[in-house]
Amino acid sequence: MSQIPIPFASMFKFTFQVPYIAKMAGESEDYPLSETGIPFPESALLPCFCSSEDRPFADVYLGWNEKGIGCQIIVNIAKKLPSFQSAESGKMGNRTTLWLDTRGDRSGHRATRTCRKIRLQYKISRAELNNQSPTTSRKKSKNWTPIEVLPIPRALQEPKLPNIETISLGTSVQDSQYHVNIFIGKEALIGYDPLENPLLGFYYEIIDEFLGNQTPTVGEEFPYDHDPHFWVNLELLPSTAPPSKELSDPSEQKSRKKNNSKSNSSQVAGDENAEPRKSQKPKRNSRSA
Predict the structure, then answer these.
(1) Tell me: the pLDDT tens digits for 127-166?
(2) Alpha helices in the chain (DSSP H)
(3) Were both Cys, which of 40, 130, 184, 199 would link to 61 (CB 3.0–4.6 Å)?
(4) Strand 232-236, strand 15-18: pairing
């Protein structure tokens, strides 16, 4: 009787730590996806516990801030270039699917209203591989939709579909790698509140026509497509420094400076009228025996 091997990753529940990143490509017009000069830190690299037969070919980085969640995928194509299919032909080309849950402990086996399934398709032509020019995919073509929010099978509740414009997708080619940059705005994530709920559910599936499939833990033999129980946990780490509050109103800035100058002048005047303090010798720290 033949024995079916059980992947070791299916025996554990993993929690990945996600750092706070103040600025990420795609979060606003000031940081568009076409400019790939905002690399993710090494602390944002997610571990991969897929089976030894499916060696990981992509590095997946993840970060968060108040505006949403950013993801950067770096696929190493080495010396051989993939035979990319044209997405205009209607066939499913290279793509990444993300599953996210902003609430819950994922102890159940059916998705809730706070779960999202987002599929992102992208094509990289031979010209782009040769020119190594960045591209941004956001508009719909006749036979191809680069960004889709799909229903999760067997879900308990179907959430309202978000505006696709709150999700950004961009690709670029650098040396022997191609990069996929994704930013999911908080408007597309029901219940996204990192301060109140820093523990999220997450899973991804990367499909490359040349290199194969990659997932963080278990593979297609498990129903991660509709069962949140097989997703990993994300622990959103707090920012090391509180965000600075910038004043957008120039008049408010002037009044703030004026009040600061008045307080400083009054403090100086008070110091002039104050009696001089007597100098005191510093006390040494003593250790009782």
Answers:
(1) 555 555 544 444 443 445 689 999 999 999 888 888 888 9
(2) 126-131, 250-273
(3) 40
(4) parallel
Confirm if 18 and 44 have CB atoms less than 8 A apart. yes
Q: How far does Cα 139 stand from its chain's mean position?
A: 21
Amino acid at 268: V
Distance separating alpha carbons of residues 25 and 168, to the nearest angstrom: 9
What is the pTM for the complete model shown? Answer: 0.72
More confident residue, 119 or 36: 119
Using CA atoms, how far residue 155 sits from 25, 158, 177, 234, in Å, is 32, 7, 37, 21
Q: Specify the higher pLDDT residue, 211 or 31.
A: 211
Percent of the chain clearing pLDDT 90 (strictly above): 38
* 45 DSSP assignment: B
In angstroms, the CA 201 to CA 99 distance is 8
Sequence letter at residue 278: K
Residue 200 has which token pair? 């999220």
CB neighbour burial string for 192-222, b if at least 16 within 10 angstroms, e if fewer: bebeeeebbbbbbbbbbeebeebbbbbbeee
